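Researcher: I'd like a structural prediction for the single chain below. Treat it as a standalone chain; there are no partners to consider.
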Amino acid sequence: MRVRTRSSAIIGTICLVASLALTAASADEPAAPRQAAPKVALKNVATAKNPSAGAAGPGGTVWIAERAGTVRVLSGQGLGEPVLDISGETTTDGERGLLGVTFDKEFAHFYISFTNLEGTSTVDEFAVRDGKIQPDTRRTVLTQTQPYANHNGGDIKFGPDGYLYIAFGDGGSGGDPHGNGQNLDTLLGKLLRIDPRGGKPYAIPPDNPYVDDPNAKDEIWAYGLRNPWRFSFDAGTGDLLIGDVGQSAWEEIDWAPANSKGGENYGWSQMEGNHPFRDGTEPANHVPPVHEYDRTGLGCSVTGGYVYRGEAIPDLKGQYVFSDYCDGTVRSLQIENGKVTGVHDLGVNGGEVVSFVQGDKGELYVLDIGGSVSRIDPA
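Model: Treating it as a single chain, here is the predicted structure.
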C-alpha cells in the first residue's frame, strides 16, 4: 500500500506538514489563471489505526478501512467497533494490507480488496442486510498474484455503469522489470472492469475493449499504469480520474470522459507522465495525463481524490481534489473538456494523505495513514 518508491514502509517517520505550490503542470496545459482558491478547513472527526481507504455506506454512513484488516463505521461519536476483521488473513509488509472497500449501488453487497498472507491481491464480496455485513456469505471474486511487495494498487469502485472497477499496479520492484504496464496478457498495471454478480466468480462485460482479442485479458479496461493510487468517478459527469504514482520524477493524474469505450494506454513504462521513461518510446496510442507535477519539491507520491460534488463549499464544486503522500497539501484542479484550466493550493495539509473518501452527499474526507480522519469543511 505504501506508494512512494523511496521507502518500502507505509508509515514513514518523517512528518511533512509544510505546504508548497505545485512545481509543474502538464506541458499540454494552459497556464493556470490567477483565481482565488476556495477557502476550506480540515476538521478532525475521528482517529483510526492506520486508515487506508473508505466508502459511503448504507443510511448515510461512512465506512473506514484500517490497513491491518479492520473496517469501522464513522458516526457523530467517531469510529465504532470493527464491523469486519480480517487481520488474521492479511499481511502489512511492504505496501500490502487492506487496500480498498466499496459497496454496490444498492448497498446490497460489500467488497474488500486486500493482500492475503501470501501477498496475493484478493477481492472478496459479502452480502449486506439491514446495513450489516453477513459473514457467512463471503466469497472470493478475483485474485492476482503479486511478484513484489510494492505497487499493489488495490483500489476498487463501482462505476456509473454498475460494473466493478479494480486497479492493480505493475507488480512492483522498480522500473517495471517484467514489462507489465504495456503487456495486455496480464492484469498487472491495469484498470479492470468486471460484473461481480453476472457469473461465478464474475462475468466480463460484453463491451470491454479487449473481449475479442485473444492476446489480451478480457477484464482489462485501461492499461499503462504504474501504481494507480486511488481512482474515482465524477458523481456529476461520470468522468474517470486516476492518480498514478511516478517512478522518480513525475506524478500524474489521468482523465477519461464518461463516454469512453475503454482501452486507454496511459503510457507506463514507456512514459512517466509526458516524458519518456529511461529509453522509452512514446506509444502511438498514449493518452497523456491531464495533469502532472515533478518531484523537485516535497511531493513524491500522488494520492488521487474526487471531484467535489457536495453542498458545503460552493466555490469548490466541480473541482478535482487530490494530494500527495509526502507533501500532504490538499489541492484542486479545475478541468473543462479534459483540460486543466486552474490549479489551486487549498491551504490545508492532511499529513501523510493516503486516501480520500466521498460521503453519500458528496462531502469529502481525508485519511492520514498516521490515524487522522478529517472532513473538508468551509473555512
